[in-house]
Amino acid sequence: MLRLLCQVCGDQAERSEHGVLWLLKDHREDWKNWPEDMAVTEPPVCRRCVGVASRLCPALRRGAALLWAQEFPVVGVHGPIYRSNGVVTVPFNGERRLVAYDDPAVRWVCAISQVRKLNGCTLISTDEV
Question: CA 105 from chain center: how many Å?
Answer without folding.
Answer: 20
